[in-house]
Amino acid sequence: MTEPSKITFRVFRKEPDSDSHRIDTYEVDMVEGMSVLDALTLIKDWQDTSLSYRSSCRSAICGSCAMTINGHAKLACRTQVKDEVAKWGEVRVEPLGNFPVLKDLVFDLNPYWKQVNSVTPWLEDRPDGKEGESAPLTEKGMEQFKGVEDCILCGACYGQCTAYEADNRFIGPAALAKGYRFTVDPRDGKGLERLMEGLQDEKGIWSCARCYFCSQVCPKDVQPAKAIGRLQEMASKEGTVNTEGTRYAKAIKNDIEKIGRINETTLPLRVAKINPDTIISMVPMGITLLLKRKLPSPLMRSLKGIADVKSIFRRIRERGEEK
Amino acid sequence: MRYAFYPGCSALGTSPELYKSTIKVAKALDIQLDEMTDASCCGTSALKNLDPSLADAINTRTLAMAEQKGLDILTICGTCQGVLAHVNKRVSNDTEHLLNANRAIADSGLQYSGTVKVKHLLWALIADYGVDKLKEKLHHQLRGIKIAPFYGCHILRLSADLGFDDPENPTSLETLIEATGADVVRYKSRIKCCGFPVVLTDEPAALTMTSAALLDAKNNGADLVVTPCPLCHINLDSYQRQAEKHAGQEINLPVLHLSQMIGLALGMGAKELGIHQHFVPMPSI
Description:
The complex is a heterodimer of chains A (323) and B (285).
Chain A: E1 6-14, E2 21-29, H1 36-47, E3 66-69, E4 72-75, H2 81-88, E5 91-94, E6 101-103, E7 106-107, H3 110-117, H4 139-143, H5 156-160, H6 162-166, H7 173-183, H8 193-199, H9 213-217, H10 224-238, H11 244-259, H12 267-271, H13 276-291, H14 306-322
Parallel strand pairs in A: 1-5
Antiparallel strand pairs in A: 1-2, 3-4, 3-5, 6-7
Chain B: E1 2-6, H1 8-12, H2 16-28, E2 32-35, H3 44-50, H4 52-69, E3 73-75, H5 78-93, H6 95-104, E4 118-120, H7 121-129, H8 131-137, E5 146-149, H9 159-162, H10 172-179, E6 183-184, H11 203-219, E7 224-227, H12 230-238, H13 240-247, E8 255-257, H14 258-265
Parallel strand pairs in B: 1-2, 1-3, 3-4, 5-6, 5-7, 7-8
C-alpha cells in the first residue's frame, strides 16, 4: 500500500481578545472523498483542540460551515479537498470575509441577521388586517420563487459581495433574495410595501454592483443577483420609486429604443439628482473627457435598423400587457 | 480568422482608443473584422436585470445577424460579452425563450437558431489564434514591466454562461501578459468589481471599490494594469483621480486596454494606440 499523501492546511487563527491573527499550518493525510470539514475535524481531534469553527449537519443543509477556502466563500462540508489541492496545491482556510471575526473561523453573524430581518422575511396579512384576501399558493405561484426559497442562510454571498465589502450598510444579497421570495408569494399581503421600507433607500436594491459574486458562490444556487433584478423590475414598474438606480436603468432602456445605443455623453445628467453641487462636480470630468477627445457628440445618429429595434420594444410591451 | 465584430457602446463612444487599437491589432494579426454596424446596444447588466425578455430579444437580434453572416461574434467589452453570452445560452438551451425572442424580432425578418458563439478578443487570441503563433509576432517590448491583470466581473461570472476561464482562478489574461514578455503581478483584486455599475448611483461605494483594486495592484508592485473591459477602464482610469481623493492616497497607475497591451508588444507606438487619451499618463516604455 502506498503512503497517503500529506496535504498542507493553512488555517486562520485569532484569539477573541486580540486584534491580530496568525496562520497555523497543519499536515493532514489525504483520504479519498475527504471534505474540508472532514480535514478540520481531524485537525481538531488529533492535532490542535484549540481550533474553533462552526459546523453541524455535514450535508450542505444547515449552512453553519460557510468559510473562505482558497479565497472563495464555500461550505466546508461540500468542498472536496482533492479539488482544492488540484487547483491550488494546498488548502487555505479563513473565516467568511466581511464579517467581524470572533475566534479562528467563527465570525459574528449579527450584522447579517439584522439585514435579513429588515426585509420582514415572513408572510404577513394585508396592511388593513383583513385575512383571507390573499391568494392561496398554487403551483404557478410557487414558480415565482422557485429556487430562491432554497437559501440556507449560510452567509457565503455576504462573504463575497463587493457592494457589502465597500459599504456594509448595503442590505446585501441574501436579505434581498428573502425580500423577493416573500414579496412574490401569493399568500403574502405585505407585498411591495416590504420594498418601500427597506429596499428603496440608497443602500437598497440599487446599490447592488451586479458583480454576480453572490450567484457564483451560492452553494444552493439561489441566484440572489437574479432576485435583485426582479425586485428592481417590480420597483420600477410600480412607478413610486425615483432613485438614481431607476433613472439609470430607464435611461439605458430609453436610449436603446430611441437610437439603438447608449448616449454616454448625456447619461450622467439624466441619472444624477439635479442640483448645483452634482452639476458642478461633473464639470472637471466633462472637460477632461472633451480634451482627451473621449466625449462623443450628444447628438447621436440612430441605427439604420432602428425601426426593427423599436418593433422589438413594442412587441415585448404588448406581451407584458397580455400577461 | 473572421468574426462578426461587435464593438459595443463604449468603444464607439467614450473609449475611442479601444476601437482604434483593436482595429490596428486585428489588422496586424490578420484577423478579419466584419463590423456589425447595425447591432444595438446589449443593454448592459442593468437591462438584463431589469427586463430579461427585452434583453433576450434585442440580443437575439444581434445573434441572428451574426448567424446570417455565418460568423461567430467577437466582443471587446466584458459586459457585452457577459450579456450576449448569457442571452445566447438562455435562448439556445430553452425552446420557449428562443420562440419568444424570435417572435419579438420577427419584423426584422431575422430568426435565430442558436449556432453562434460569442467570444471576447481575450479568448479568441488564446483559443482561436493560439498563444504560440501570437508569441512569434510579439517582440517582447514589455520585458521587465510588471503588469497587473484586471478581469472585470462579466467576463468571469456567471461562469455557467461564459465557460472559458475558471471564475476562481482565471488564467487567460496572465497567459497573454506572459506572451508579451512582461511580468504578471499576482494580487487578490484581479477578479473583483471595479465599481463601474454603481458609479452613477452610489459613487462613494464605487470609488471604494476602484481605489481598493488599484491600491492592491500597486502595493503588489504593478507598473501597469491591463483590462479586457472598457467599463472597468472608465473606473480604473477616468475615475482614478477621484478614487485617489476618496482614498486619501496617491495611486497614479496607468491602465491599458487589452488591445493596447498587445499593440505595444507588436511594436506599435503609444500614440498610435490612443494611450495618450487616458487620464493617467503612461511613462514611455
